[in-house]
Design brief:
about 45% helix; single chain; two-stranded antiparallel ribbon; mainly alpha; about 5% strand; five-stranded antiparallel beta sheet
C-alpha cells in the first residue's frame, strides 16, 4: 500500500501482520472452542470483552443514538468537504445510503496486533510456490500490457507483479465480500469514531469524494480495505490522486477493474520516486569472516572487502552504491541492496516488504531461490503441504479456516493446540514433524 512513509500502514491481505503487511485482516478463520488452549481462549475472550467495551464507550447507549451521532457527524462534515472542493451533490449522493458507522471497521482499527515475527515466517507466507507460479501465469497473460508499461515507465515488470501479489493476491482479494468494504463508509467511520486515525481518515475521505467527482469510479464500486486502500495495487485515495494512470485509454483511471491501469499506477509511483531503470534492487551475497562496516559503499568497494555474490556471478555496475542488510540475522541470507530497494519502500516503508517484493520478483523472473535459505528451527513444508496441514488440523477439529497455505495466527493457534494435545512442544510452527504426526493419526 503506497502510503506508509506518511502514515501508519493498514492492510488486509495476509492473516499474519508483522507490521509491515498486513490489516490485512487475515486468513484463516477460527479454531473450534473445544480445542482452544487455555491461554488462547483467555486471550480471545479478553479481546472480545475489550471490543465490546470499546464500542460501548464510543456509543454510550444504543444503536439509535449511535446512528444519530454518526449522521450528525456526516451532516457537519459536509461543509468541510465542500470547502475543500467537493460538490455538495457528490457528497449527498455518496452518503445517500450510508446511515450507520461500520462497527467492524472500528473493531479492526482498535485491535491491530503488534508483534515481531522471525524473518522466515514473514517470507514463507509471501514468497512460495503458488505466488511464484501465479506471477508467472500473470506475466504471460498480461505480457502485451507489461511490455507497454515497461517501455513507458522503465520499471521492471516482475517487481510490479510481485507488488500485485503482495497487495491483493493478483486481484483475488477484491472478490472477497468479507474483506472489501464501501470506502466512503469506512473512512467516515474512522473519521467519526477513531481518534487515532481521525485526521488521516478525514483527509482520505475528502480525496475519495474527489475521486467520485472525477467520474473515474462510481460510489457503488468504490470498494477497498477497512482503512480505505483501493484496487488491485491498494492505493489510498491521496496516493491515487498523485499517481493514478488511465493506461488502457478508456477515459477512467480504474485501478479496481483494469489491471493495466493498476500496474501502470504502481509503476508511476515507483518512477516518480526515483526508480533506476535497468538496475536491480539488490544481490544475495556471501560474507567473509569478521565484522562488516555499515553505511553505503560502491559494489566495487564491498567486493574489495571480500563480499561476493552468493551465486558466484560478478556484480553488475560496480560503481553503484549499496548497503549491507541481514534481515534474518547473521545465520540467514545476507544482501547488498541498491537504490531501487529504497524506492520499493516508498510503497511500504518496511525492509521486510521490500525484500519480499524483490525476492518474489526474482523468482517469478526465473532467477532461482536463495543460496543461503532462512534459518528455521524446523523442517520447512511446501505450500501444498501447508494446505494439507490445515486440512488435517480441520479434520481433527482444531481449525476451521481456509486451506490457503498461509500460516497466520489462526493456523498457529490450531497447531499449538494440537501440539499440546499430543505432547509436542507447542511452538505453533508449521513443521514436517507436526504434519507427519497428523498423517499417522
Amino acid at each position: 500500500m503506497p502510503f506508509r512513509t506518511a502514515a501508519r500502514a493498514f492492510s488486509f491481505f495476509t492473516e499474519t501482520r508483522v507490521r509491515s503487511s498486513s490489516l490485512f485482516l487475515r486468513n484463516s478463520g477460527r479454531k473450534t472452542a473445544a480445542h482452544f488452549c487455555w491461554n488462547c481462549s483467555k486471550r480471545l475472550a479478553s479481546l472480545a470483552t475489550a471490543t465490546a467495551l470499546s464500542i460501548a464507550l464510543l456509543i454510550p447507549t444504543g444503536p439509535a443514538q449511535a446512528d444519530a451521532g454518526f449522521r450528525n457527524w456526516v451532516a457537519s462534515f459536509r461543509a468541510t468537504a465542500v470547502q475543500s472542493g467537493v460538490s455538495g451533490a457528490i457528497y449527498d449522493e455518496a452518503f445517500r445510503n450510508i446511515r450507520d458507522p461500520d462497527l467492524e471497521v472500528l473493531e479492526k482499527a482498535r485491535f491491530q496486533p503488534e508483534f515481531t515475527a522471525p524473518a522466515w515466517d514473514y517470507f514463507d507466507n509471501r514468497v512460495h510456490e503458488q505466488s511464484i507460479a501465479n506471477g508467472q501465469a500473470m506475466a504471460r497473460k498480461w505480457k502485451p500490457w507489461l511490455d507497454k508499461i515497461e517501455a513507458r515507465f522503465g520499471v521492471d515488470r516482475y517487481i510490479l507483479l510481485a507488488i500485485w501479489s503482495m497487495e491483493s493476491n493478483y486481484g483475488e482479494m477484491l472478490k472477497r465480500t468479507d474483506v472489501m468494504r464501501n470506502v466512503i463508509r469506512s473512512l467516515a467511520t474512522l473519521g467519526y469514531g477513531d481518534k487515532k486515525r481521525s485526521k488521516f481518515a478525514r483527509t482520505q475521505l475528502i480525496a475519495a469524494l474527489k475521486i467520485l467527482q472525477t467520474g473515474d469510479i462510481d460510489e457503488s464500486h468504490l470498494q477497498g480495505s477497512w482503512a480505505g486502500a483501493m484496487g488491485h495495487t491498494q492505493f489510498i485515495p491521496t496516493s491515487y490522486q498523485s499517481y493514478a494512470v488511465d493506461f488502457d485509454g478508456n477515459g477512467r483511471r480504474d485501478i479496481w477493474n483494469s489491471v493495466p491501469d493498476a500496474l501502470a499506477t504502481a509503476a508511476n509511483l515507483l518512477k516518480k520516486n526515483g526508480w533506476q531503470s535497468g538496475k536491480t534492487w539488490g544481490y544475495e551475497v556471501a560474507l567473509p569472516d569478521g565484522k562488516m562496516p555499515g553505511g553505503s559503499m560502491s559494489l566495487a568497494k564491498w567486493q574489495s572487502l571480500g563480499v561476493a555474490r552468493a551465486s558466484g556471478k560478478p556484480f553488475r555496475n560496480g560503481a553503484d552504491k549499496a548497503e549491507l542488510k541481514l534481515p534474518g540475522g547473521r545465520e540467514g541470507p545476507a544482501f547488498l541492496v541498491t537504490r531501487n530497494f529504497h524506492v520499493i519502500k516508498r510503497y511500504n516503508n518496511a525492509d521486510k516488504y521490500a525484500f519480499a517484493v524483490g525476492l518474489l520478483a526474482d523468482q517469478i523472473a526465473g532467477y532461482g531461490t536463495l543460496v543461503n535459505d532462512w534459518s528455521r528451527p524446523f523442517t520447512k513444508l511446501s505450500f501444498a503441504e501447508k494446505q494439507e496441514l490445515q486440512q488435517r488440523l480441520a479434520d481433527h477439529g482444531y481449525y476451521s479456516g481456509n486451506f490457503d497455505g498461509k500460516i497466520g495466527q489462526a493456523s498457529k493457534d490450531a497447531i499449538m493446540a494440537y501440539q499440546s494435545k499430543v505432547g509436542l512442544t507447542p511452538d505453533g510452527n508449521p513443521s514436517m514433524e507436526v504434519l507427519k504426526t497428523l498423517r499417522r493419526r
